[in-house]
């Protein structure tokens, strides 16, 4: 149905003049009005025509847009390719060639709507844009008005992401997020065209994943007796036990739910530090020649526990068995193994650790940590997976024997499988990738696809090892220049647990002030990187740690609206930070706040926290001034 009565103004690279229109977030590459600038009206007769490969998008449209509008959106007939009073979904080789698998073209014309994507992911992302064009009521779970006609402005959108990895870390170890909360969070990521959920599943304060071979990991490791309230210097405690874990079926459901939304779930199993919960469950994993590990419990405070894994054959075999079950659950090519913040005091005092350093020619405890990571790097590579680790995995000089072992494909205590070969992708392919970054997950491809080939690099890591640069840009720059792929997540820009303003009303203020504008000005590729090294930055990630973020409402407050700014920084082809139109983004956020309201997101309002969002009396750790950018 067509209505020519509404005015539609737009221009290249922006959706409409400031203050008008739907306020699309993130900003598409190109949006233009289609003469005669009317609308197409969805009504009870509008059907959905799903071409091959788009059936899942059609199901999503009916389950979300259909539920919100009350429209049936039935399956279209054989003539749906002409989109007469219908929404046509198609995978287009032309779009794939020109815009990549996540690119799309959306056309709203007088007789219907067509979404052509480079792949099913592109069609899905185009459907997200269509949902925004329908207005904030389209983000509710049931109709809130009696209207049966839903106008969409006659518009042409052409869009594609800047990066293939557009991720968010959710820490479910410090405070557990129940399964339904994770599913809800996935919907919020999808609404912002984000495509990676990094689940931080294990830490000193809790182990959140069922491992059948080692049941005590969840019987013991998933529960702590009490919890520190606020920063670790606070004298306050919540004396209630805290915990929880995901069964294997929970994880299968989460992974499948994410895949339907073209999101890859990347698991993190932290080694060799951040492991006290595992040691509490199985004391033999710790440095038993230094401390009484049988007396340890799951840690109940924050910070970095001194209790780390022992560098023994038993520990390696234990975690190989754990990872075998992890790989069965998560199809993602990428598996995160932490590798950060590993105190060395126990290793320095441990005769067993000193013997390992001497036997392997590792030099010192930094070399021992590197040896630990390289072992699992090779183990994963032999199974067609790629290790991701925090930038500390670059520390420690590899032993010559380890370099040779890595270059030959790597040995393991478990039977090896061939490492995938193949040439590195071209620069543009590397950055945009083959859809979402997980093999077997959205975007497809064989496990290991896109991994660099060849022997070990200067740190003894397999070429496919990827670095999460969290302490600043420096680690990512070093890794990219050495030929490793990089996910930029510098704490100075995109740690969303950091406070959003300097006022006294900010709940449990942690770290430097990182405003909505600060996050909007985040640039994943630093100027030091150019050419092939710059192309090694495959994307970026916002990290949400949950020491002082214990409920869904607190997660919402810390994440939003800043996650919308982050989404635009990693999706849209924005100019350099100094030239970005933050005022225009703020105007578009006026419409986006209405969408967040409809979704039930307890975001931080622009004017400051609502009364119930404040946490008076809980100690934080605010840092003054601008964060040092390193």
TrEMBL record:
Residues 22-160 form the Beta-hexosaminidase bacterial type N-terminal domain. PANTHER family: BETA-HEXOSAMINIDASE (PTHR22600), BETA-N-ACETYLHEXOSAMINIDASE (PTHR22600:SF57). Residues 1-19 have a biased composition (Basic and acidic residues). Residues 163-398, 462-573 form the Glycoside hydrolase family 20 catalytic domain. It holds the Pfam family Glyco_hydro_20b. Belongs to the glycosyl hydrolase 20 family. One of its GO terms (biological process) is glycosaminoglycan metabolic process. Residues 1-26, 398-457, 606-630 are annotated as: Disordered. The keyword Transmembrane does not apply. One of its GO terms (cellular component) is membrane. This is beta-N-acetylhexosaminidase. Coiled coil: none annotated. It is an enzyme of class 3 (hydrolase). It catalyses: Hydrolysis of terminal non-reducing N-acetyl-D-hexosamine residues in N-acetyl-beta-D-hexosaminides. GO terms for molecular function: beta-N-acetylhexosaminidase activity. The keyword Hydrolase applies. Residues 610-630 have a biased composition (Low complexity). InterPro entries: Beta_hexosaminidase_sua/sub (IPR025705), GH (IPR017853), Glyco_hydro_20_cat (IPR015883), Hex-like_dom2 (IPR029018), HEX_bac_N (IPR015882). It comes from the Bacteria. Residues 435-457 have a biased composition (Gly residues). Its EC number is 3.2.1.52. Keywords: Glycosidase, Hydrolase. The active site is at 341 (proton donor).
